[in-house]
TrEMBL record, chains A, B:
It is an enzyme of class 4 (lyase). Catalyzes the circularization of gamma-N-acetyl-alpha,gamma-diaminobutyric acid (ADABA) to ectoine (1,4,5,6-tetrahydro-2-methyl-4-pyrimidine carboxylic acid), which is an excellent osmoprotectant. The keyword Glycoprotein does not apply. Its EC number is 4.2.1.108. One of its GO terms (biological process) is ectoine biosynthetic process. Belongs to the ectoine synthase family. This is L-ectoine synthase. Pfam families: Ectoine_synth. Pathway: Amine and polyamine biosynthesis; ectoine biosynthesis; L-ectoine from L-aspartate 4-semialdehyde: step 3/3. InterPro entries: Ectoine_synth, RmlC-like_jellyroll, RmlC_Cupin_sf. PANTHER family: L-ECTOINE SYNTHASE, PTHR39289. It comes from the Bacteria. GO terms for molecular function: ectoine synthase activity.
Length: 131, 131
Protein backbone atom coordinates (compact mmCIF):
# COMPACT_ATOMS: atom_id res chain seq x y z
CA UNK A 1 0.00 0.00 0.00
CA UNK A 2 1.24 3.43 -0.94
CA UNK A 3 0.13 6.31 1.33
CA UNK A 4 0.98 9.90 0.38
CA UNK A 5 -0.20 13.31 1.53
CA UNK A 6 -0.73 16.10 -0.97
CA UNK A 7 0.06 18.62 1.76
CA UNK A 8 3.57 17.14 2.03
CA UNK A 9 4.22 16.40 -1.65
CA UNK A 10 3.33 19.87 -2.86
CA UNK A 11 6.47 21.12 -1.11
CA UNK A 12 8.69 18.59 -2.92
CA UNK A 13 9.88 18.04 -6.47
CA UNK A 14 6.77 15.96 -7.10
CA UNK A 15 5.04 19.33 -7.52
CA UNK A 16 5.80 20.44 -11.08
CA UNK A 17 5.03 23.99 -12.11
CA UNK A 18 4.70 25.60 -15.48
CA UNK A 19 3.12 28.88 -16.57
CA UNK A 20 0.36 29.50 -14.02
CA UNK A 21 -0.24 25.93 -12.97
CA UNK A 22 1.21 23.41 -10.50
CA UNK A 23 0.65 19.69 -10.72
CA UNK A 24 1.44 17.52 -7.71
CA UNK A 25 2.06 13.97 -8.78
CA UNK A 26 0.45 11.65 -6.25
CA UNK A 27 1.02 8.55 -8.44
CA UNK A 28 3.33 8.15 -11.44
CA UNK A 29 4.08 5.37 -13.90
CA UNK A 30 6.67 3.76 -11.64
CA UNK A 31 4.05 3.16 -8.96
CA UNK A 32 2.71 0.40 -11.21
CA UNK A 33 -0.98 1.26 -10.95
CA UNK A 34 -1.46 1.57 -14.73
CA UNK A 35 -2.57 5.19 -14.40
CA UNK A 36 -1.14 8.33 -12.84
CA UNK A 37 -3.00 10.62 -10.45
CA UNK A 38 -2.25 14.31 -9.98
CA UNK A 39 -3.68 17.23 -8.06
CA UNK A 40 -3.43 20.20 -10.40
CA UNK A 41 -3.92 23.83 -9.34
CA UNK A 42 -4.46 26.46 -12.03
CA UNK A 43 -4.03 30.12 -11.15
CA UNK A 44 -7.02 32.46 -11.18
CA UNK A 45 -7.20 34.32 -14.47
CA UNK A 46 -5.08 31.80 -16.38
CA UNK A 47 -5.88 30.12 -19.69
CA UNK A 48 -4.31 26.93 -21.03
CA UNK A 49 -4.43 25.11 -24.36
CA UNK A 50 -3.76 21.39 -24.06
CA UNK A 51 -4.04 18.40 -26.34
CA UNK A 52 -2.96 15.06 -24.94
CA UNK A 53 -2.53 13.23 -28.22
CA UNK A 54 -1.03 10.19 -26.53
CA UNK A 55 -2.97 10.06 -23.26
CA UNK A 56 -6.51 9.84 -21.96
CA UNK A 57 -7.13 12.25 -19.10
CA UNK A 58 -10.05 12.78 -16.74
CA UNK A 59 -10.23 15.93 -14.65
CA UNK A 60 -12.54 16.39 -11.66
CA UNK A 61 -13.07 19.88 -10.23
CA UNK A 62 -12.69 19.95 -6.43
CA UNK A 63 -12.66 23.73 -6.02
CA UNK A 64 -12.82 26.91 -8.07
CA UNK A 65 -14.62 28.13 -11.14
CA UNK A 66 -13.79 28.17 -14.82
CA UNK A 67 -14.68 26.78 -18.22
CA UNK A 68 -13.45 24.42 -20.88
CA UNK A 69 -13.81 24.90 -24.62
CA UNK A 70 -13.66 21.86 -26.86
CA UNK A 71 -11.71 23.12 -29.87
CA UNK A 72 -13.11 20.29 -32.00
CA UNK A 73 -16.76 21.26 -31.53
CA UNK A 74 -16.47 24.84 -30.30
CA UNK A 75 -18.64 23.98 -27.29
CA UNK A 76 -17.87 25.58 -23.91
CA UNK A 77 -18.76 23.93 -20.59
CA UNK A 78 -18.79 25.62 -17.21
CA UNK A 79 -16.54 24.12 -14.55
CA UNK A 80 -17.58 24.23 -10.91
CA UNK A 81 -16.94 21.80 -8.04
CA UNK A 82 -18.31 18.37 -8.98
CA UNK A 83 -17.89 18.77 -12.73
CA UNK A 84 -15.62 16.26 -14.48
CA UNK A 85 -14.44 16.28 -18.04
CA UNK A 86 -12.82 13.31 -19.73
CA UNK A 87 -10.73 13.69 -22.88
CA UNK A 88 -11.82 10.40 -24.43
CA UNK A 89 -11.03 11.64 -27.93
CA UNK A 90 -7.71 13.29 -26.95
CA UNK A 91 -9.71 16.49 -27.40
CA UNK A 92 -7.74 19.66 -27.98
CA UNK A 93 -9.15 22.21 -25.54
CA UNK A 94 -8.77 25.51 -23.75
CA UNK A 95 -9.12 25.46 -19.97
CA UNK A 96 -9.81 28.77 -18.26
CA UNK A 97 -9.65 29.45 -14.51
CA UNK A 98 -11.87 32.36 -13.50
CA UNK A 99 -11.09 31.50 -9.89
CA UNK A 100 -8.20 29.25 -8.87
CA UNK A 101 -9.10 25.70 -9.94
CA UNK A 102 -8.10 22.62 -7.96
CA UNK A 103 -8.48 19.48 -10.05
CA UNK A 104 -8.02 15.74 -9.49
CA UNK A 105 -6.56 14.29 -12.71
CA UNK A 106 -6.07 10.71 -13.92
CA UNK A 107 -3.86 9.88 -16.90
CA UNK A 108 -3.75 6.68 -18.94
CA UNK A 109 -1.11 5.71 -19.86
CA UNK A 110 0.42 6.99 -16.65
CA UNK A 111 2.65 10.04 -16.80
CA UNK A 112 6.26 9.20 -15.95
CA UNK A 113 7.00 12.59 -14.41
CA UNK A 114 9.60 13.67 -16.98
CA UNK A 115 7.18 14.98 -19.63
CA UNK A 116 6.99 18.63 -20.53
CA UNK A 117 4.17 20.20 -22.51
CA UNK A 118 5.28 20.57 -26.10
CA UNK A 119 4.47 23.48 -28.37
CA UNK A 120 1.25 21.78 -29.46
CA UNK A 121 0.00 21.31 -25.88
CA UNK A 122 0.69 17.58 -25.79
CA UNK A 123 2.93 15.31 -23.77
CA UNK A 124 5.22 13.03 -25.73
CA UNK A 125 4.23 9.37 -25.83
CA UNK A 126 6.10 7.17 -23.36
CA UNK A 127 8.29 5.57 -26.05
CA UNK A 128 9.75 8.95 -27.06
CA UNK A 129 10.60 9.75 -23.46
CA UNK A 130 12.53 6.54 -23.19
CA UNK A 131 14.83 7.60 -26.03
CA UNK B 1 -15.19 15.01 -24.63
CA UNK B 2 -17.35 13.67 -21.84
CA UNK B 3 -18.63 16.24 -19.32
CA UNK B 4 -20.55 15.08 -16.24
CA UNK B 5 -21.57 16.71 -12.98
CA UNK B 6 -21.40 14.76 -9.73
CA UNK B 7 -24.24 16.88 -8.36
CA UNK B 8 -26.52 15.55 -11.12
CA UNK B 9 -25.26 11.96 -11.26
CA UNK B 10 -25.62 11.35 -7.53
CA UNK B 11 -29.41 11.52 -8.00
CA UNK B 12 -29.34 8.87 -10.76
CA UNK B 13 -28.68 5.14 -10.96
CA UNK B 14 -25.00 5.94 -11.48
CA UNK B 15 -24.94 6.40 -7.68
CA UNK B 16 -24.65 2.91 -6.23
CA UNK B 17 -25.21 2.37 -2.51
CA UNK B 18 -24.35 -0.47 -0.21
CA UNK B 19 -24.11 -0.66 3.57
CA UNK B 20 -23.15 2.85 4.66
CA UNK B 21 -21.48 4.00 1.44
CA UNK B 22 -22.51 5.51 -1.89
CA UNK B 23 -20.30 5.48 -4.97
CA UNK B 24 -21.16 7.78 -7.86
CA UNK B 25 -19.66 6.49 -11.05
CA UNK B 26 -18.32 9.41 -13.05
CA UNK B 27 -16.54 7.14 -15.56
CA UNK B 28 -17.04 3.43 -16.18
CA UNK B 29 -15.44 0.83 -18.45
CA UNK B 30 -17.70 1.66 -21.37
CA UNK B 31 -16.36 5.22 -21.47
CA UNK B 32 -13.18 3.75 -22.93
CA UNK B 33 -10.69 5.64 -20.77
CA UNK B 34 -8.96 2.49 -19.50
CA UNK B 35 -9.81 3.34 -15.89
CA UNK B 36 -12.98 4.17 -13.98
CA UNK B 37 -13.43 7.18 -11.72
CA UNK B 38 -15.86 7.33 -8.81
CA UNK B 39 -16.75 9.74 -6.04
CA UNK B 40 -17.37 7.60 -2.97
CA UNK B 41 -19.01 8.82 0.24
CA UNK B 42 -18.68 6.73 3.39
CA UNK B 43 -21.01 7.37 6.30
CA UNK B 44 -19.64 8.74 9.57
CA UNK B 45 -19.03 5.91 12.01
CA UNK B 46 -18.87 3.21 9.33
CA UNK B 47 -16.17 0.57 8.86
CA UNK B 48 -15.50 -1.38 5.66
CA UNK B 49 -13.29 -4.33 4.80
CA UNK B 50 -12.30 -4.44 1.14
CA UNK B 51 -9.85 -6.42 -0.95
CA UNK B 52 -9.77 -5.71 -4.66
CA UNK B 53 -8.02 -8.88 -5.75
CA UNK B 54 -8.53 -8.10 -9.42
CA UNK B 55 -8.19 -4.32 -9.48
CA UNK B 56 -5.74 -1.58 -8.59
CA UNK B 57 -7.44 1.30 -6.79
CA UNK B 58 -6.24 4.73 -5.69
CA UNK B 59 -8.33 6.74 -3.22
CA UNK B 60 -7.85 10.45 -2.56
CA UNK B 61 -9.53 12.04 0.47
CA UNK B 62 -11.36 15.26 -0.44
CA UNK B 63 -13.23 15.68 2.85
CA UNK B 64 -13.73 13.98 6.21
CA UNK B 65 -11.62 12.07 8.67
CA UNK B 66 -10.85 8.41 9.17
CA UNK B 67 -8.19 5.73 8.99
CA UNK B 68 -7.06 2.76 6.96
CA UNK B 69 -5.54 -0.41 8.33
CA UNK B 70 -3.42 -2.54 6.02
CA UNK B 71 -4.37 -6.08 7.05
CA UNK B 72 -1.16 -7.41 5.52
CA UNK B 73 1.18 -5.35 7.71
CA UNK B 74 -1.16 -4.31 10.55
CA UNK B 75 -0.21 -0.66 9.98
CA UNK B 76 -2.84 2.04 10.38
CA UNK B 77 -2.68 5.39 8.54
CA UNK B 78 -4.74 8.46 9.34
CA UNK B 79 -6.93 9.79 6.55
CA UNK B 80 -7.58 13.52 6.27
CA UNK B 81 -8.12 15.76 3.23
CA UNK B 82 -5.13 15.48 0.89
CA UNK B 83 -4.17 11.92 1.89
CA UNK B 84 -4.18 9.30 -0.87
CA UNK B 85 -3.77 5.59 -0.54
CA UNK B 86 -3.08 3.29 -3.48
CA UNK B 87 -3.69 -0.44 -3.28
CA UNK B 88 -0.76 -1.41 -5.48
CA UNK B 89 -0.57 -4.86 -3.91
CA UNK B 90 -4.35 -5.43 -3.95
CA UNK B 91 -3.99 -4.89 -0.22
CA UNK B 92 -6.77 -6.23 2.00
CA UNK B 93 -7.72 -3.36 4.30
CA UNK B 94 -10.21 -1.86 6.72
CA UNK B 95 -11.38 1.66 6.00
CA UNK B 96 -12.97 3.58 8.88
CA UNK B 97 -14.87 6.87 8.64
CA UNK B 98 -14.79 8.82 11.89
CA UNK B 99 -16.43 11.69 10.04
CA UNK B 100 -18.15 11.26 6.68
CA UNK B 101 -15.45 10.63 4.07
CA UNK B 102 -15.64 11.90 0.49
CA UNK B 103 -13.12 10.15 -1.73
CA UNK B 104 -12.05 10.37 -5.39
CA UNK B 105 -11.32 6.81 -6.56
CA UNK B 106 -9.64 5.44 -9.71
CA UNK B 107 -9.87 1.77 -10.66
CA UNK B 108 -7.75 -0.16 -13.14
CA UNK B 109 -9.09 -2.18 -14.85
CA UNK B 110 -12.15 0.04 -14.99
CA UNK B 111 -15.24 -1.04 -13.07
CA UNK B 112 -18.11 -1.91 -15.41
CA UNK B 113 -20.82 -0.80 -12.98
CA UNK B 114 -22.39 -4.23 -12.51
CA UNK B 115 -19.99 -5.50 -9.84
CA UNK B 116 -21.10 -6.16 -6.29
CA UNK B 117 -18.78 -6.65 -3.34
CA UNK B 118 -18.41 -10.35 -2.68
CA UNK B 119 -18.16 -11.99 0.73
CA UNK B 120 -14.39 -11.56 0.68
CA UNK B 121 -14.60 -7.79 0.00
CA UNK B 122 -13.52 -8.09 -3.64
CA UNK B 123 -15.09 -7.31 -6.97
CA UNK B 124 -15.16 -10.14 -9.48
CA UNK B 125 -12.70 -9.86 -12.37
CA UNK B 126 -14.20 -8.52 -15.60
CA UNK B 127 -14.19 -11.93 -17.30
CA UNK B 128 -16.48 -13.43 -14.65
CA UNK B 129 -18.94 -10.57 -15.01
CA UNK B 130 -19.17 -11.23 -18.71
CA UNK B 131 -20.40 -14.80 -18.10
Amino acid sequence: MIVRDFNDLRKTDRAVSDAQWTSTRMLLADDGMGFSFHITELDAGSEHTFEYKHHFESVYCMAGKGSITDLGTGETHQITPGVMYALNLHDRHILRAEEKLVMACCFNPPVTGTEVHREDGSYAPAEELAD
